[in-house]
Backbone:
DNA sequence: ACCTGAACACCGTTCAAGT
DNA sequence: ACCTGAACACCGTTCAAGT
């Protein structure tokens, strides 16, 4: 039987769900292919309960990753209020890079579990797309980037971030990539 | 017991190895997580034989992908002989895109089986790096791109190619990405 | 030196029985 | 309505026996 649409979960089910997500974040960050059975056990629920909440690995990983990424997305608006559009864009990219490095293990889990190509792409139209749209529009209006760049274009351009090794000097590599992307975006801008 | 270093394989072993690779290419292209046991069976070898040649999934996928990618890499030199440096670079990127789309299933297998971040990165320093080095140096000398771009920079910049869906209008998406990258590379070029 | 295939271990998924 | 945990299926890996 399916869950009635939008019916609130029973309180014990609600708690189970949250405990699973909590444990999953920790476990998947540590090792991208942590067994689901181990997550269930650490969360203190039976196998069946686990599968009631998350019918497959993909749905679990997606949920965890979505929540984590949302947090970076939300900072975009704030940056735009305190800085010039192009500075805000670049700084947001830096934060995204920092985040991608911190959650590298989770991103690996994403890649392996999802059939989606790319970690951000898997989230579909969500908080990240909104944030990027906001930033690009502000820059286009300020004349700091060339017109007609779509959020999709942008996400493809920075895709390299997720294949930088979080150990070693990722700061250098990420910085050089983002500089290159910014130069690409600036090419053909009205205010140049 | 390990294989003696560089000792040639016995002829039947040689044939088995080739048949495995052949079947693996077809099978992995069709479905990224085709069972190794199915590959072994289709190749007509026992489980043990399979594992003698490829001790884990990663080593198999790596070998298949390496060989496939090599073919595109090899066209770089040829392009440089018949075209201006920047035209050659751009055209090579187009071919790489075409290739990435044709072998999308295999690339998925790469991502899932390898711990390496990114499909090209997993190959390490090989034919691709050589090709890119060649192209970048030619362009730097021609003054068509800014100096100091490393092969690593370049590969990160085009990483988005592998997360384009091979169905639908990938031509558009790839084209826009590569245009953006080219603009980024041109920024700060002496001959501008 | 290389091959085979049965045996083993592990993990995802299902389901009968419970509250 | 939700939970449990044993049972099942599948796949990667090993290994004793063979040529």
Residues:
């Amino acid at each position: 039987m399916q869950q009635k649409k939008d019916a609130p979960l029973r309180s014990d089910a609600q708690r189970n769900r949250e405990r699973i997500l909590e444990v999953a974040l920790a476990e998947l960050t540590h090792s991208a292919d942590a067994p689901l059975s181990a997550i269930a056990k650490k969360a203190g629920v039976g196998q069946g309960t686990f599968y009631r909440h998350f019918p497959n690995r993909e749905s679990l990983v997606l949920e965890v990753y979505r929540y984590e990424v949302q947090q970076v997305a939300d900072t975009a608006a704030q940056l735009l209020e305190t800085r010039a559009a192009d500075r805000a864009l670049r700084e947001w990219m830096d934060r995204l890079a920092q985040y991608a490095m911190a959650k590298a293990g989770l991103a690996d889990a994403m890649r392996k579990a999802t059939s989606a190509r790319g970690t951000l792409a898997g989230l579909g139209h969500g908080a990240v797309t909104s944030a990027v749209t906001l930033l690009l529009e502000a820059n286009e209006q300020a004349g700091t980037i060339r017109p007609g760049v779509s959020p999709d274009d942008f996400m493809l351009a920075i895709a390299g971030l997720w294949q930088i090794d979080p150990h070693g000097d990722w700061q250098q590599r990420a910085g050089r990539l983002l500089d290159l992307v910014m130069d690409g975006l600036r090419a053909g801008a009205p205010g140049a």
Summary: Chain B is about 65% helix and 0% strand. Residues 11-30 of chain B form the longest helix (20 residues). Chain B has two domains: 8-55, 57-186.
